[in-house]
Amino acid sequence: MEDRSAKYRAFYAQLICGAAKAADPRLEQAFRTVRREPFAGPGPWSICLGGHPYVVTPDDDPAFLYQNALLALDPARGLNIGMPGAHAYWLSGCAVKEGETVVQIGAGSGYYTAILAYLVGPGGRVHAYEIDERLAGLARDNLKDVAHVDVRGRSGIAADLPEADVIYVCAGAAQPAPEWLDALRPGGRLVFPLAPEGMYGGMLMITRPDDGEIWPAKFLSRAQFIGCAGLQDAEAGRRLGEAFTKGWEGVQSLRREGVPDETCWFAGEGWWLSTAPAPLPTEPVRPHADITQI
Fold first, then answer.
1. CA–CA separation, 253 vs 76, rounded Å?
2. What is the DSSP letter of 232?
3. Across the strands, what pairs with 191?
4. How confident is the model at residue 1 (pLDDT cuts 50, 70, 90)?
């Protein structure tokens, strides 16, 4: 069965990374190398395309795991291993490098933690946070042999987050947590779904400059996630829903100072997104308008 799984993984990795136009060959190799079977648990499995009902696979043939679809961890709660093609696109956008330190918020059973661990290599580090006790236990067990990963079974909104080059968030939020911004090193990238629970939002990448309070920012795509506990706000969600009807692709910077002006796309408490560029522009990333539900 392992030989068949390897064949499926090779095709799957090539397909999703080709669609994501991933420039780094290590990303395809990560998806080719990391087996989904341990993270999915025993089959049959429940899978679906975003927004549609789950379909139960006929049996536990691993071919069913290597699809560009959501894979249920807890169908009753809508908890999934997210859509691989979307994650390939987002990971390509934030360009995780060997030797970097990554903080992952919302590790689930650890599949994308393992992908991140492959990308940073043994010289890097992945700190994975998962607030759900059962899932944290699964992730810890699944990743026990990966020495440069640690799984923390608690919230990823805390003042004691380790300094990071990349913070990769897999739970929707109505705002960027200040703790995430503060933990980024200069040049570090925060990638998170600006998407309160139950709302289609967008995967936003924010880059910390060497100094100043105007940070390069851009949406990589539309997205919907399970909500991040502690970062929900019904009124902000309503206003974000309105904002996404107009020109989300034009966002170019996050401002942590000043009064919102005519370039303001959306304003939160102590921060706002602007269509004006930051002083140091980031490399262009092609926005992807497809809505992806995770």
1. 38
2. -
3. 168, 205
4. low
Phi first, then psi: give them for residue 8, nearest 5 degrees: -60, -45
> What average pLDDT does range 255-265 have in this prediction?
94
Q: What is the Cα–Cα distance from 290 to 222, expressed in whole angstroms? A: 6
Q: Write down how long the chain is.
A: 294
C-beta of residue 233 within 8 angstroms of C-beta of residue 174: yes
DSSP string, 37-73: HHHH-SSS-EEE-TTS--EE-SS--GGGGSSSSEEEE
At 291 the pLDDT is 39
Q: Sheet of 79-81: strands edge to edge?
A: 55-56, 46-48, 70-74, 79-81
Provide the whole-model pTM. 0.92
Average confidence (pLDDT) over 38-59: 93
Pairing of strands 149-152, 125-129: parallel
Separation CA 231–CA 105 (nearest Å): 12
pLDDT at 224 over 90: no
Rounded Cα distance between 33 and 112, Å, is 12
